[in-house]
Sequence to fold (362 residues):
Amino acid sequence: MARSECRTGVKTEFGTFFAIYKIAEQIRRSKSLNHGSGDPFTARRNYRRWRNPNGENPKNHHYGSSYRGNSHTSLSPYFPATPEQIITDAVKAHEAGAAVVHIHARNSEDGRPTSDLAIMKQIVASIKKQCNAAICITTGGSLLMSKEERLAPAVELQPELASCNAGSVNFVFADMAAKLKNPKYDWEVPYLKGTYDLIFSNTFAGMEYYIETMNQYDIRPEFEVYDVGMINNIAYFCNKGIVKKPVYLQFVMGILGGIPATVENLAYLVKTAREQIGDFVWSCAAAGKAQFPLVTAALTMGGNARVGLEDNVYLKPGVLAKSSAEQVIQIREIAERLGLEAATSDEARKMLSLKGNGKVHF
Fold:
C-alpha cells in the first residue's frame, strides 16, 4: 500500500512540475507579454512595470515565511509551538532569505492558537530586535475567535502588515484528526473535528471594519484569498475607495472548502484579479504537498512565494522540514535556478509601500 501511494505521489508531482514548465515556456514565448492585460501571463510584465518605477532590479521576488496558524503541533516534532521556538524559527527564516514573516501566536503551555497581546508582543518584539524582517501579524488567529479578538493584536501593536481574510469560507481540517495518532494536547483532535461544522466567517461588515482599522493605523492589509469569488469582494472595497494602493493579494490554495491547488486555478486567480482590480502585488501559498509546485509556478508567473510550517510541514515527500528556514532555502534555490533574485526586506517594504519597522508599536 505504501509503495502504491508513493508512486501516485510521484506521478502527481511530475505532472504538476510539467505544467509549471509549460507555463514558463508560454511566458517566454507569448506575444501577450508585450500587449494588453487580458491574459494571465501578462501579470509578470505588468507586475514588473509596477515595481520598477525607479529602475530597481526587476528580477527581485520576495519570499514570505508563515508561522503556526491552524496547523498542529503534533504533525511534526519540529513544529515550533512556544513563543521562544516561534521567534527562533522566524529569525532563522529571515536569515535564509525570507523578507516577510507572517506570525500567529500560540499558548506556551499547550500550543493552542491565541490572540493574547502579551504573547504576540513578546514574539514580534523579539523578532524585530534580532532581525530586519517585515512582520505581518495575523488577524486570522483561530477559527473560533471573534473579529475583535482576531484584530486586537494588530490594533495594539500596529505592525507594517496584517492579514485580512477576503471572505467567508468553509475551512475544514477534520480529516487531519485521523493523522494525529498520538496528539500532544487534548484540544487538538476535537478542534480539528469541529471544523467539519464551522464556517470561517468574514462578512462584508467585518472586512470593512478590518480594512478601515488598518488604514487608521497605516497597516498594509495582506488580503488572503481562498477562492476566486473573494477577488470580487476586494474589488468591491477598491471601488468603494477604502482600499489603499498597492493592493497586496495572497492566494491561499488547497484548503478544503477553498479553491483546489492547481496551476490552472492559480492562472485563473491572477487573470481574474487583473481584470477586477488592475495593478496589484501578489504572492501564493499552498497547503501540504502542493506548496512547492504551486509557489514555483507563482514565481514563473511574476508573483512572490510564501512557504513555512503553517502551510506544510514537509520539505519533500516523506521528509519533514526541520524549520521554516529549510523551506525558504529550498524555494530560494529553485528561484535562483529560474534566474530570479530574492528581494531583501527593505526592497519588499518598497514594493508594498510599508511604513517601516520604526513606526510599529513593539
Q: What stands out?
A: The domain at 35-359 is CATH 3.20.20.70 (TIM Barrel). The chain has a mean pLDDT of 83.
